[in-house]
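Notes on consecutive records. When two proteins share a document, each keeps its own sequence and its own token line. Never mix them. Below: protein one.
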Amino acid sequence: MTDIWFRTGEATVLAAEGQVTDAMPEVVIGSVRGPVGQAFASMMGQVKGHTRMFVVRDLNQAVRPATMMTTKVTIKNMAYAELLGGVVQAAMGDAIVDCLIEDILPRDQADEICMIITVWLDPRCADDENLDHKDLYRTNYEATKLAISRAMTGSPTVEELIANRKTVKHYALDGVIDY
């Protein structure tokens, strides 16, 4: 049985200049027998506008550990759904398999743990005639891998958060608060 009960991670990877392909996944990883497994199973039903799906690399290639993805943005059209279930899903799937290859995720526990990943896909992507699919793949691949790595290593640590309390602030606080 795994000792991985509830680990969380997040990452942001910014788009190339002129693109709206920023990726900001949030991941929870845990035992299929614990709270993450319970949440995973309860996500099998659908919620209008917030489709939930297994992460697959391609047809008949669901990743291990079993991973459920859902969007942070309400899906309003097929173009958005196709990007989410296409390039974004494939990038996440590749990142998960590479996490196994690189021992970021424990191979021997791949069937004992599961993951839930919430996905940021900017709604403007669906209407962008100049959307760079390679950049969309890159940002989601890198951010997924980084979020999983952070979850598995507990990064940032409490000590890091305390140490940078007065040197790191949310971008939305520029002009709102000075440290």
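Protein two starts on the next line and is unrelated to protein one.
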Amino acid sequence: MRCPFCSSDETQVKDSRPTEDNTAIRRRRACAGCGARFTTFERVQLRELTVVKKDGQRTPFERDKLERSVSIATRKRPVDPDRIDRMINGIVRQLESSGDQEIPSDKIGELVMEGLAQLDSVSYVRFASVYKDFREAKDFEEFIGELSTNVTT
């Protein structure tokens, strides 16, 4: 593992333990070059996934990109980070176990929308505004109207 501070390849694992939800291994590492300490996570990856975008472009699936999107939607919201991590783990597991190697970006977006709807309604609307490409306030009004109708029924 390369040190993120000095780029040395001489790092040593000091401690390993499973994460609370047992979906990853947390490793504390120390760099022999600069002495810095850092943490890495090791997760099981069942298969290489490819995201098929709306324009047909294919890119490798990146869990970090999914985490960033959800992080932006939940920023400054009272949502437990463990619940967010469990939601992301669940989405990744669903994608990996679907049997499909190529996943349409729409499918990922819908899974995130479902997860955020369960976590926090404001985060859900934030994500939806980007995912559904809201252009003006009227788009928000219509979406909130649909959301309110679905909640009351």
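For the record: Strands lie at 11-18, 24-31, 37-43, 50-52, 58-60, 102-104.
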